[in-house]
Amino acid sequence: TENELLNWQLPLAELHCHIDGTTSPALALRQARKYNVDISDVTNGDQFLWGNFSQFLDAYDRIAALFRDEADHKLLTFDYLKQLSEQGTIYSELFISPCHAEQSGLGAEHYVEALSTAAIEAKEAFGIECRFIVTGVRHYGAEKVTAAAKFAATCKAPLITGFGMAGDERFGDIRDYAAAFDIARDAGLGITVHSGEFAGAEEIERTIDSLRPDRLGHGVRAVESERLMKGIAEQGIVLECCPGSNIALGVFPSFEAHPLRLLKDAGCRITVSSDDPPFFKTTLKREYEIAAETHGFTEAELVELTREALCAAFIDARSRERLL
Ligand code: ES4
Ligand code: ZN
Fold it and tell me: Can you give the residue ranges of the Adenosine deaminase domain (predicted)?
């Protein structure tokens, strides 16, 4: 029954979560007071306020700007990993944005140092394993995304194991970002791209062809093309599905209408993640619950979600074996 699944101590793993998007309204208010910033237009203290994806991205940038020094970033990251481990999470991969950090006055090296310290301390305290994906923001333009890739390729931080791109999928031409992804791939980083949340099948295909990603952020609109779903399944490209995020942003009208089951039935490798949990009023545990309650995932299928995430994780073979 539902309750047995909810109470069951299932190990969770997530591949798709933006670190600044883990800020709770309460923490946002504390940071706003600390820096004397008015954020009353983006949160009422109870929830974040936004109406569409563009407004969400603006709110996200405003919240990210409240984390300015090493201590702020370390606090945010340690706190989120603690929350995750309380939900039974054993592995987390976080999207980090040196570009956002620099906009808020902290150099990329110091930023990564602070996040890495938080990850090491969280592992010591809770046993949770964590890796970082340096993330370019598409609507900041190809030049900034390339700079992020160059940083990721050269920074030598052991916990940075991937490169990705977030932001507005409708901005620019995806082919302009190929050079950035070549730099990251040549450096041995795992590759993931947000595509197929707001963009349709054609754009997903273009993205796969020009960036050759290991995984797609969302990718759920692949459901619109049988041929594309088949291609994704055959190439073994992993989908980072975030149902709660998709429903909050209106990509699908209801949890029932989310294609999680359809994509799985088409043979795609699927995982679930929380994306920006407090913004979308979700948690990683909640995403597993949606799979169970709305899409009828059995206990074995929930275990498979975690295994798939670990298999698709950007992590060294030995650490993966320890988690599996
Ligand atoms: C995003 Cl730039 C950014 N931040 C957080 N969540 C996102 N989803 C898509 N782009
Ligand atoms: Zn995302």
Answer: 11-324
- CB contact at 8 A, 111 and 19: no
Nearest CA to ligand 1 atom 2: 167
Q: How many structural domains comprise the chain?
A: 1
Residue 18 belongs to domain with CATH number: 3.20.20.140
- Whole-model pTM? 0.97
Distance 1 CA to ligand 2 centre (A): 31
The ligand whose atoms approach the alpha carbon of 144 most closely is 1
Q: Which two tokens stand for residue 271?
A: 């995982």
> What is the DSSP secondary-structure string of 206-254?
HHHHHH--SEEEE-GGGGG-HHHHHHHHHHTPEEEE-HHHHHHTTSSSS
Containing structural domain, residue 282 = 2-323
Q: How many CA atoms lie within 13 A of 205 on its CB side?
A: 12
Which pLDDT tens digit goes with each residue over 59-118? 999 999 999 999 999 999 999 999 999 999 999 999 999 999 999 999 999 999 999 999
Residue 298 tokens read as 């059995």
CB–CB of 252/246 below 8 Å? Answer: yes
Any atom of ligand 1 within 6 Å of the Cβ of 276: yes
Q: Is 93 in the pocket of ligand 1 (CB under 6 A)?
A: no
Residue 190: pLDDT band with limits 50, 70, 90: very high
Helix/strand/coil for 58: helix
Confidence of residue 4 (pLDDT cuts 50, 70, 90): low
Sheet of 190-195, strands arranged across: 12-18, 89-96, 129-137, 160-166, 190-195, 215-218, 238-241, 269-272
